[in-house]
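[retry 2/3] Dihydroorotate dehydrogenase B (NAD(+)), catalytic subunit: previous attempt timed out, resubmitting with same input.
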Amino acid sequence: MDLSVNFIGLSLKNPIIISAGPLTGSGEMMRKAVEAGVGAVVTKTIANEIRPNVRPRLVKGKGGIQNIELYSDFSLEEWENEIAYAKSYGAVVIANILGHTPSEIAYIARTVEGFGADALELGVSCPHGEGLEGVVSEPTELYNLTKEVVKRVDIPVMVKLSSNVSNIVKLAKAAEEGGASAISGIDTVRSIAGVDIERGKTLLPTYGGYSGPAIRPLGLAAIASISQAINIPVCGIGGIDSAQNVLEYMMLGASTVQICTSIMLKGHEHIGKIIKDLEEWMDQHQHKSFQEIRGIALASLKSFEEIKVEPYVSRVKNECNKQCFEQCAKVCIYQAIEKQGSRLQVNQEKCTGCGLCVSMCPNNVFELVWKE
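[retry 2/3] Dihydroorotate dehydrogenase B (NAD(+)), catalytic subunit: success.
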């Protein structure tokens, strides 16, 4: 069993990459991530312009973190020392860069390549700062931008995409046609984390990007769609908090994954736990490499036209004596779950097989069966 992967020509000891953001804002911060065991790091967004970060700029919500953090605090020239420092500790450094025109981003790309970056990630999809106008959402625009960067550098170019667009697949294809070596996604989701109703003010003073477990379903859907549409590697991002989440992205086509929010909330030691759990799962299932599982879940995805309407209904498979058992009868939208004394039963004439009870019951009481 081997956790190593070859991703866009980079030899990584495992598929875990720290994504661009607060955890990779300096060489010292990237060193800390490398020492925690990650396969690679993506720098905080490098731009021509330094824009001071507001305070406060992070707020934790129930399902993740909203941030209004912008670019790096270092100038473009200062990143030469930061990248060199991280690489001196063995880091594989992917430079996340932002420019507002093809010529500007190509200039930055060529410059950070000269600093020793091993690859590039085009950070063209951040949902705040310039707002949605800053998100490249038109395929021709993205094609031209990608093509110009690829033409100017000799290192691999990955394009980071956002779910804040109408058709992410068209953008992925445009980036591939422009010469991209890989696609990463998704970037954070445009958000307002909440409102302080006592003061009548939003928790942060502008729109931000939401990250964490709440956006994982969006990330999984995007990665599955992209993996089915293109022929270059994909890096999954969004709400990864465990080895299980890593495997979910890989089974939907990702070759590597990027993590940030869970490490911000749980500390760098959480990286070691994810890696250990990955090793144990791969060993238990007798897989020698991630290549054996990459994309295997895609075959289970069907269009609505391909799905047959079959007569499944729910039934009680385990007796339940938990205090919450009455709640099941209350929340069944078809009133098919009935309480009979101290027991639950399913009225299969009322049950439509929606499956909600199976997925929501913490005690594994229900199962779907073929209606006799």
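[retry 2/3] Dihydroorotate dehydrogenase B (NAD(+)), catalytic subunit: The CA atoms of residues 34 and 91 lie 6 Å apart.
[retry 2/3] clearing retry counter.
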